[in-house]
């Protein structure tokens, strides 16, 4: 039976922060359920989807109470867009989880393709007497020692989405661990007392099927990047970043078309074409996530701007998005992201680099051709070289921000 929801005075900022955290968690969690073929992880997705449904109703009620004039309605419209987008992401994640729970069918080789897009995420139940039971996350320092992070805890039916150093792991807690597959095995065993068994993998034997699966992986990466950039766009009210979100969505649409062609070709060569249904579900749900990213940034794109409550919610969520300018002579000046091992050393993921020397996220209006020039490096890789004046858009935990700021030789943008 669905939970009854009634109006209660609750801060929209708090709800938006929770919705952002849950939406981002659901993307990884749903794909991890597919990667692991895990009914348990898939059920966690559906439980979080139910929680998101309640949050979006509460958010809409609060926003309706806040709108008292046409000006209020205009300023709050982008907030409704963010709420609706988070709900779409949640629904899409639920559809991905049902691929596992309803045994819709998925090529076995998909488990070989997904690790390229999904950092391993595992569900573990803390056992009484386990080495981690009764310890605080601060004392354990798992991320520093192993590279594995506890991203969420479910305790007595309630979710804790932002565990910190003071959080104690208690017996019967359900913890979600994220990290490399090599590192996660030891932490899983220390938490649950059981040996971690990873997914079995096989390679596809049909070229068109391999291309179709590679398309889904790329769509997943681009859609998730689009969501990150969309939140960056509303946080810094940047039309240039919002336009990158639209460009990514167009690329995902193009990939979807190619995916459909390759899947139809592969269907003629596989023993059981019905086994491709799950792949079609994955692609469709991933496209919805990409569309939701555009919806998040819609207010910026339409010239309405962004409501301050959205920026505050993004800043208060579990993973923050920061803007940093690379200073002259800093560790990053003249170096590549790979040479400085930015993600490994700081835990921050650089999602975009804006070339320039004015510290702005907006594109210069006079390019060499007299028109508008967009000089963005989206989803930069290890080979991306940075220079003084470049502006980084990066995502990670609050504790990780300081390390990246020190490398860049600047303070994080507010």
Task: Describe the protein's architecture and organization.
The chain is of the alpha+beta class. It folds into three domains: 12-109 and 202-309, Up-down Bundle (Methane Monooxygenase Hydroxylase, Chain G, domain 1); 121-192, 2-Layer Sandwich (Alpha-Beta Plaits); 318-408, Regulator of K+ conductance, C-terminal domain (Alpha-Beta Plaits, 2-Layer Sandwich), CATH 3.30.70. It is 53% helix and 10% strand. It contains 14 helices and eight strands. It has helices at residues 12-36, 39-66, 70-101, 110-113, 137-140, 142-146, 181-192, 207-236, 239-267, 277-296, 298-301, 308-316, 342-346, 398-408; strands at 121-125, 149-155, 158-160, 174-178, 319-325, 349-354, 376-378, 391-397. The chain has a four-stranded antiparallel beta sheet, with helices on both faces. A four-stranded antiparallel beta sheet has the order 5-8-6-7, with helices on both faces. Helix 1 (12-36) runs antiparallel to helix 2, helix 1 crosses helix 12 (308-316) and helix 8 runs parallel beside helix 10. The longest helix has 32 residues, at 70-101. The protein is globular. The two termini are 43 Å apart. Mean pLDDT is 82; it is low at 364-374.
Q: Which range does the strand content fall in?
A: 5-15%
Give the strand line-up of the largest sheet.
1-4-2-3
CATH secondary-structure class of the largest domain: Mainly Alpha
Give the mean pLDDT. 82
Secondary structure tally: strands: 8
The run of helices and strands is HHHHEHHEEEHHHHHHEHEEEH
Summary, kept brief:
This protein has 414 residues and is an alpha+beta fold. The protein folds into three domains: 206 residues, Phosphate transport system protein phou homolog 2, domain 2 (Methane Monooxygenase Hydroxylase, Chain G, domain 1, Up-down Bundle); 72 residues, Alpha-Beta Plaits (2-Layer Sandwich); 91 residues, Alpha-Beta Plaits (2-Layer Sandwich), CATH 3.30.70. Helices cover 53% and strands 10% of the residues.
